[in-house]
């Protein structure tokens, strides 16, 4: 279960565990609930996340696409170096904000 914090014009969601196939459906459901229940921008805080697989990336891209349809933004923060490299290689950091940890 992700931690969800509503903070002004944004909602922060912290999965707190690796975003991989085994938990991706639950995370996707939580993320979509956050997107549908608010009109804020969404921040995914990946603190404590060491691994993100293709399914997890797909969930994040889907969230970005859904938010874009209503002129809202997605930001991914506290990304560990290896995962940041994955975002950069896929050029996802050009579609939405990705901030490395530290």
Globally, the shape reads globular
Computed structural class = alpha/beta
How much β-strand is present in the residues?
15-25%
Amino-to-carboxy terminus distance: 25 Å
- The residue-averaged pLDDT reads 96
Stretches where pLDDT is under 50 for at least 5 consecutive residues are none
Put simply, the count of helices is: 3
The CATH topology name reads: Transcription Regulator spoIIAA
Number of strands: 5
CATH domain class name: Alpha Beta
The figure for the number of domains is 1
Radius of gyration: 12 Å
CATH architecture descriptor text: 2-Layer Sandwich
What order do the helices and strands follow? EEHEHEHE
Main sheet record: 5 strands, mixed
User: CATH superfamily assignment?
Assistant: STAS domain
The percent range for helix content is: 40-55%
Q: Strand order within the widest sheet? A: 1-2-3-4-5
Descriptive report:
With 102 residues, this protein is α/β, with parallel strands linked by helices. It has one domain: 2-Layer Sandwich (Transcription Regulator spoIIAA), CATH 3.30.750. A 5-stranded mixed beta sheet has the order 1-2-3-4-5. Strand 2, helix 1 and strand 3 form a beta-alpha-beta unit. It is globular, with a radius of gyration of 12 Å. It starts with a strand and ends with a strand.
């Amino acid at each position: 279960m992700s931690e969800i914090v509503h903070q002004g014009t944004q909602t922060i969601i912290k999965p707190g565990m690796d975003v991989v196939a085994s938990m991706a459906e639950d995370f996707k459901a939580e993320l979509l609930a956050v997107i549908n229940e608010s009109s804020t921008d969404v921040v995914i805080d990946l603190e404590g996340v060491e691994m993100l697989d293709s399914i997890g990336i797909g969930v994040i891209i889907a969230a970005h696409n859904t938010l874009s349809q209503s002129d809202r933004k997605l930001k991914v923060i506290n990304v560990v170096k290896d995962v940041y490299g994955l975002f950069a290689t896929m050029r996802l950091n050009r579609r939405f904000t990705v901030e490395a940890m530290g």
